[in-house]
Amino acid sequence: MPQENKTTAGGTGASTHSALAWIRLNYDYFKSIPGILKIVQAILGIFCMIFASPAILAGTHWFLFVVITSFIATLIWMSVYFLGVREALQLPINWILTEFLNTVVVAILYLTAFIIQLTSWSPNYHPHLRNPNLTAGVIGIFNTLAYAAGSYFLYIEWKSSTPTTSPA
């Protein structure tokens, strides 16, 4: 099968096939427990953003900062797995440890964020403002648990991939 060449503005031909040959779509990852957890984290993050927006109180500003930052980080990790970036780049990075540390930090930040969100809205504000923000805080609890579970599975994977040394 001949390769398809496209001519660029400079007049040189570049093979489309070879430029994207490193991409390998990995659907199987999202059938595993860590992959399903990433999907759950992203979906719960979307619902947190929906219910907490717009940020009226200072606590909600922090909550949305944590939610949006962790949502972006989760999308980046999902892309890394979906496109097979880990396998393609062959960088000297301990990917599992890096993701584990990221997920632990996000779980801790989510813990602080949902506590602040729920305590900020616990006084008796008007229900049309209060109820969605309390809902966002409760969803934040579930997302904290999802990130904590993701941290647990990453820890197990990291420990199983780290060679153990026996005492001499």
UniProtKB/TrEMBL annotation:
The keyword Hydrolase does not apply. It is found in: Membrane. The keyword Membrane applies. Keywords: Membrane, Transmembrane, Transmembrane helix. It comes from the Eukaryota. GO terms for cellular component: membrane. The chain crosses the membrane at residues 36-56, 62-83, 95-116, 136-156. Residues 29-159 form the MARVEL domain. It is a multi-pass membrane protein. Its main location: membrane. PANTHER family: MARVEL-CONTAINING POTENTIAL LIPID RAFT-ASSOCIATED PROTEIN, RE01453P. This is MARVEL domain-containing protein.
